[in-house]
Write a structure and sequence with these properties.
Elements (H helix, E strand, L loop, with lengths): L1 H38 L2 H13 L3 H5 L2 E10 L11 E3 L1 H14 L2 E4 L4 E3 L2 E9 L1 H5 L5 E10 L2 E9 L1 H30 L17 H23 L1
Parallel strand pairs: 1-7
Antiparallel strand pairs: 1-2, 3-5, 4-5, 5-6, 6-7
Length: 231
């Protein structure tokens, strides 16, 4: 009986030792899972993308995008015709981000992004030299970003109504100025003075033949008078 109790005690002790050894491992695994989950949260994926985009690193920014990514900036007609606004698919959106880098398009957050499930909504500004040329230093925008796992599937950017009005006014003014300049150039070309060429009188023309004829008539008259007088 005593032997059995001893074996039972040793067995319980062994189980406890195994359990104690397993606790740190399980804790580490749980911590790793939580950390991984936090690293791939919609907010963190969005932050990673915006940081890469702001640094001008299109390749790093594209790493946060899904193959089926959809990108849009609306209303597109409020922006200059050469401004990239819409793309679909990783290749096209990657090319769009490269255009953004070339055109020095910048986005800046103006508040704390709000997360609801897999969707991140945010407010910010968009600026670019092409807009500054029109007299618009920056454009107010509201964005909606959808994240699936560790990748962004939708990036939808809406230009604020006040900024749309400012852009449309600037574009209309630029178009009118261009038309006026073109019309002025055409008017100047039409009104340009023409050079007149003065040519010398041709042989046989001008006053000399008339003078010679008159002298001949006078000489003839005098000759006739002399002949009559002589008779």
């Amino acid at each position: 009986m005593t032997v059995r109790r001893g074996r039972l005690v040793r067995g319980i002790a062994a189980l406890c030792s195994v359990a104690l050894l397993a606790v740190p491992t399980l804790a580490a695994a749980a911590s790793s899972t939580v950390s991984s989950s936090a690293a791939s949260s919609p907010a963190s994926v969005f932050t990673s993308f915006m940081t890469a985009l702001a640094s001008g690193n299109a390749q790093s920014a594209a790493a946060d995008l899904a193959p089926s990514i959809s990108w849009s900036i609306a209303p597109s007609q409020a922006l200059p015709p050469t401004f990239p606004t819409t793309a679909s698919g990783l290749t096209s959106v990657g090319a769009l981000l490269t255009e953004f880098n070339t055109a020095k398009v910048q986005f800046a957050l103006t508040g704390t992004p709000q997360v609801s499930g897999d969707t991140v909504t945010w407010d910010g500004t968009m600026s670019a030299p092409a807009l500054t040329t029109l007299g618009v230093s920056s454009v107010q925008v509201q964005g909606t970003t959808t994240v699936s796992g560790t990748q962004i599937t939708v990036m939808s950017i809406q230009i604020a109504a006040s900024s749309v009005t400012a852009l449309e006014t600037a574009l209309t003014g630029a178009s009118a100025a261009a038309s006026t300049a073109q019309a002025s150039t055409a008017t100047k070309a039409t009104a340009a003075p023409t050079t007149k060429t003065t040519s010398l009188p041709k042989t046989g023309q001008g006053p000399l033949p008339w003078i010679a004829g008159l002298l001949l008539v006078v000489a003839g008259t005098m000759l006739v008078g002399r002949v009559r007088f002589a008779r």
